């Protein structure tokens, strides 16, 4: 029976390894995809193909076992087989849950840090069990745990965050001064120098980080590079400078695109070759331990695990299989795209939808930075300041593009610097045998370059800083939760044995399954729910034609939100009202985004079509009034039920439903008029508007009479009047919008649009 338990654990660990590969790739894709996706240097399919080849190449050429899983964090000679299996099982269960949690949030975290702290937490828990069972005390823990290594890793994490951000900012600042935003107009030799430096850094990175210790690069070449790095780098620079100049001058290639392709391949390869072991290192160590114990003939509680200290090469077929799982995940994981989006959004050049809300700390950091910048500017001669400022002037067309989602988040120069600096830092740390997280380095380099590029202007700085603080806070959260959760799970397995393992596995897969279904449902709802689109037309008729779909979208959602509020009150359904309240807030946010676009819309207008701006501004004002009324009705309805106030009376619900039915009819007619572009139907809707106004006024009078004679609940009366009055405002805003479109629409004029 004893051997069957451990066989079950090995099978479970194999399943967990595959699951961990999937959730791990979803998280770490940000390391090598964000620069290429953010700059849109090449098509998305090409990016994925380059990354896939890099992953496959890196997986097959992986240097094998992750030593940290075997002996880096704990001393294997202090543990027996039964204890080691508990540690490994606790680590893998914790790892997939933690990484899946961060993927669901769309936040990048470090797989290296999570696995290290999980090993540390689980090993500490089992060590303490052993110590106290033997009558020892806490001071003996240092015999079991490699505290020096753990401390080195923690310091490495902290330093890598600061150093990556600082160096990224400095290199980007001087690169931009040298090349400016009009880099395509610069002399070819200047681009060739940059290309030579960047490609040299990336090639050195591939050789030092990606291929060192593998069969692809010979030991002699490794020794040669290691002993003469300066000569190797100089020789590389000369060769790549010459090739870059020839490619750009005669073949007319874009050197920055080549850098991005090569850099994406290099980081993808390094990720697979080195971080792969974060996902399969623990299960493989467990498998090796199981085979060793099975051949020993000893009891699991007696067999010492000192054999883990010996390095073992991973079979190539396992590396290949792992690489295939990683590539498939990269192509199909929507969570991977979600994590990449967070990194790209925080580093994009222009303003747009900000995902993170500003907090006290982000505001104070921005205020301090502004003051520090002003003080520093006082020390720099004005003539030099002006010369620097001219290099940071963006092309005017960049800011005026209406469809921001179709534009690059940043240019090719920044993408190239991101990849070059990340490559240099990671390869330098590897050659010096310093522990660091590739996720932390690539993310913080991207944040540093965006800061230096003046992407964090006064319009967006507090949001971006808040986002970076959230991500960094998440990293420390990763370490703490990984340690605590792995320790708790290890102790539970120690107490419950096979039953505890079975229960924890079921819990883990149910939770991951639930998260997957929830995420899929959310994506489906996002796709089905038409998002409001920004106008690009330059004439009134163009705006009418183009925005008709938006109006149809708004009135359709407005009818649903209003009806859900009334139905939720009738049924006292708090869950439904909560969802409805969120839908109202979402609609209001989308309309706010359209209003924020007004600046870019007006910038695009020509003199002849200046009247379109007045039409657009008025239309936005009416849409805002509609969304505010709906949001208010949703809020007060939810608040009333949430506070357990008295239910609305039967007559009140009945009257509200009468209004709801009539309003739904008007909004439905409005929807069809705009959806079908049958603007002549608007006249019929406007002719019947008085009927609903009269109905609402009648219900207000009835409630006044009820309040004077029989009504005993102030809260009910307040809610009822609030809904009726807000309904009136909703109708007024809707009719004003319809009158605006009816008055301005002219079927004889062809809509003018921007080029």
UniProtKB/TrEMBL annotation:
GO MF annotation, one: phosphate transmembrane transporter activity
UniProtKB keywords: Membrane, Phosphate transport, Transmembrane, Transmembrane helix, Transport
Compartments where located: Membrane
Source organism, top-level taxon: Bacteria
GO biological process, one term: phosphate ion transmembrane transport
A Pfam cross-reference name: PHO4
Membrane topology: Multi-pass membrane protein
Protein name, per record: Phosphate transporter
